[in-house]
Amino acid sequence: MRSSSPSRTRHLVRATIPAVAVIGVLALAGCSSSDTAATAETAPADDVFNQELHDLLPQSIQDSGVISFGALWETPPVIGVDAADATTPIGIAPDLAAKIAPILGVKAEWSNLQWPAQLPGVQAGTVDALFGQVTITAEREQSIVDLVPFQKTEEGLLLPAGNPKDVEKLADACGLTIAVPVGSNQSEKVKAISDAECASDPIQMAEYQGATAAVQALRAGTVDAWFDTAASLQAIVDKDSATFTSIVLPESEIPAEFGGIAVAKANPGLSKAIAGALKVLIEDGSYDAVYQEYDVAPMAITVDELVINPTTGTAPGEVAAS
C-alpha cells in the first residue's frame, strides 16, 4: 500500500462533472431540531430584487417574507458556528442564503437539524428547504424532494495523524471500523465497497448523528475513520493537524457528486425561485467569490450545471412512476 503524501492528505482535488442543460425557468432570472433558529438580517434590496422570481415563491413564503432553511451546523466550511456564538450559522450555505434572500424579496431563517430529521422535516414543512448536507441522488430526485445543485462535493476519510494504517481508499479499510452519518448514503457506499473488496474481512460501520460525535469517537480510538465531504474533513484537520489527517477518496472509487438544496415536491415554485437566484449570483460573480473566500473554489458549479434534479431530469414537483 502507498503511504500518505502531503498533496493527497491536505488538498482538495477538483472533480470534473459533465455539464447539463439549464432548465427553462432559469431564464427568468437576469433529524430532530435543536430548537435553535437564526434569521439573517438581510432586508430586500431594490437593486437586486427580482419580481419574477419572487412571484414563483409559494404564497405562504410571500406572505411571511421568510424562507426557512435547515441543516446540521457541524460541517464547515459549508455550515458551522463560531465558537463565540453557537446561535447563528456561518459558512458557505449561510453566505449564499443571505445573497439569495434579497433577490427573492425575503429574509433567510435557519434551524439546526440533526441529519435523520432533515428529509422528513422538509417534506413535513418543518423548514422550507435543506441547505448543507444533502447529496443529490437519483432516488431522492425521483421520489423524495426536488434538488437544486449548489456545489460539487468530493468525499474523504478523516484519519489519525500520520495515517498509521495506510488507508488511501475505502478498499484499504477491510477489517476497520468507519464512522458514517446515520441514515446516509455514505453507509451504502461503504457496504458496496466492502462487499466487492473485503468479503473475507468486511468493513465495519458505526453510525453517528453528526460530525462532532464521530470525530470524538475517532479521537478516542473507537473508530478508525470518519467518512464525510472532503472540505469538511479538511476544516477539521486545519484546526487539529496534530491529531488528524484526511484523504480524498479516489474518483475511480467514489465519484464526485453534487450537493443540493432540497425542497419538498409540493413546492416546485420554491425550487425554481432558488435556482433562478443562484443563477443571478453565478452570473454576477458573487457566487464564485464565496467559494474563493473559503478557499474551496473547485467546489463551485457553473451555470450549465445549475439544473433542478440534474441526475434524472425529473421535472420540479413530479414523482417518478414506480
TrEMBL record:
Q: Which top-level group of life is the source organism from?
A: Bacteria
Please report the stretch or stretches of sequence annotated as the Solute-binding protein family 3/N-terminal domain. Answer: 78-298
The record's annotation in InterPro entries points to: Solute-binding_3/MltF_N (IPR001638)
Q: Which UniProt keywords apply?
A: Signal
Checking PROSITE patterns in the record gives:
PROKAR_LIPOPROTEIN
What Pfam families would the database entry show? SBP_bac_3 (PF00497)
Check the UniProt entry and state the signal peptide residues, or none.
Answer: 1-37
Q: Which SMART domains match?
A: PBPb
PANTHER family from the UniProt entry: AMINO-ACID-BINDING PROTEIN YXEM-RELATED (PTHR35936:SF19), MEMBRANE-BOUND LYTIC MUREIN TRANSGLYCOSYLASE F (PTHR35936)
What is the protein's name according to its record?
ABC-type amino acid transport substrate-binding protein
